[in-house]
Amino acid sequence: MAETRAEKTTGILETDICVIGAGSGGLSVAAGASQMGARVVLIERAAMGGDCLNVGCVPSKALLAAAHAAQAQRDAAKFGIAALEPQVDWIALHAHVKGVIEEIAPMDSIARFEGLGVTVLRETAKFTGPSEVQAGETVIRAKYFVIATGSRPAVPPISGLDAVPYLTNETIFDVMGSIGHLIVVGGGPIGMELAQAHRRLGVQVTVIEQASILPKDDPEAVAVVRDRVIAEGIDLREGAALTSVAATAAGVEATLSDGIVTGTHILIATGRQPVTEGLDLEAAGVAFDRTGVTVDKHLRTANRRIFAIGDVTGGYQFTHMAGYDAGIVIRQALFKMFWAKVDHKAVPWVTYTDPELAQVGMTEAEAAKRYGPGKFQILRWGFAENDRARADRQIDGFVKVILDGKGRTVGATLVGAHAGELLLPWSQAVQEGRKMSALAGLIAPYPTYSEITKRVAGSAFIPKLFSERTRKLVRFLLRWGR
């Protein structure tokens, strides 16, 4: 990994922007501001690229790609090809995951950012006042500061857990050997993605979720994912409370409200918490609590010279939202666009299970709460009606679109093959409040999954288009027209 140099300095550094944290949000601010002419100091105490590159998005998607390849061998019979049980080389698999990280790492490296003119300090940062940060032996004074320290796995107070060598997303990718039985605690996106990936790689998997899996998503869409993972052999324990864990000779024993589960490894995937310790935020006059740094709609903290972005604010914990936040901050710090503010009406997210589950804007339940029964419209189209999905044997899933009383798009739920790739036009539709005519009139190439977008949009006009009134009009025009 190209992370060999960093600015070594002592004394006082005067700069325009000081960024604390070299994850996706901090790197976006540093790169953008520096290339636009600002003096930038970037402080990072750990690995460049943060959680996403090193222990989050990148390794998990590399693992999912390997799991998809393994599952393709099992599912080959539906295409007339002999099915095989895949043979997994865990050492080679580990090398694949690490190799993907290493291929992407140069874009986030110290060398690249120093090449952009950024001063990079490999130190722990702490505020010593409202306009000053200490990083090792260096004091940084800046016009603006950006807190982008991200989040880390939240570990719940489970009895006995402190005596068990548990895994999180920060450590599971370092397991070099095979895993016999993985117990996953938590049925959110991280838990479900890693559970399905390991199951497809031949691992026995149990998921323990005290409520329902993927609770922030549309329940109807979640049901499609649930059916698939159960069919693939995951032991899904929803509504089960984990009361204690204990180490055993074979690994770990988990005691639930409805029984006992034994496994070789246990993964804690019960959410995340903001990283604020050690920053001495009180010295800077920055308000925060256990949910994160408090910011206003402009991402300003209680100290107007200090912004906070990404996971550390306790908001949407997505890499793309950290990048979005970075843009808001750059507009204010560099161009004095102090009216720039966040707009969360079209925040997209994707859970990369198979089938994928994607969401933007309101869910059906949120629309019902906002508008009331009968005050909004639901459009839907199933993947089973798409010819490409039929050819690929990927017919599970649907698109559900929410329109307000004026026919404007306010939300979309997609579950099915490539749902994340199909989400972008719906994000634009929600952001701009588009009506269905904008999408229904597009020409979609055949046969593609993108035809689903056109079909569901066109379904808004079917009742009127094929009504008795339309038939009478057509008969009249054919009879009396030229």
UniProtKB/TrEMBL annotation:
Per the entry, the cofactor note is: Binds 1 FAD per subunit.
Q: Which UniProt keyword terms apply here?
A: Disulfide bond, FAD, Flavoprotein, NAD, NADP, Nucleotide-binding, Oxidoreductase, Redox-active center
Under PROSITE patterns, the record lists: PYRIDINE_REDOX_1
The disulfide bridges present are 52-57
Q: Which residues form the Pyridine nucleotide-disulphide oxidoreductase dimerisation domain?
A: 347-455
Its required cofactor(s), as named, are: FAD
Q: Which residues form the FAD/NAD(P)-binding domain?
A: 16-324
Residues recorded as binding FAD, renumbered to this chain, are 61, 149-151, 311
Record SUPFAM superfamilies: FAD/NAD(P)-binding domain (SSF51905), FAD/NAD-linked reductases, dimerisation (C-terminal) domain (SSF55424)
Q: Which Pfam families match?
A: Pyr_redox_2, Pyr_redox_dim
The UniProt record gives the binding positions of NAD(+) as 186-193, 209, 271
Q: Which residues cross the membrane?
A: none
Q: Molecular function terms in GO for this entry?
A: flavin adenine dinucleotide binding; NAD(P)H dehydrogenase (quinone) activity; oxidoreductase activity, acting on a sulfur group of donors, NAD(P) as acceptor
Tell me which family the UniProt entry assigns to this protein.
Belongs to the class-I pyridine nucleotide-disulfide oxidoreductase family.
Its recorded name reads: FAD-dependent oxidoreductase
Give the source species: Pacificispira spongiicola
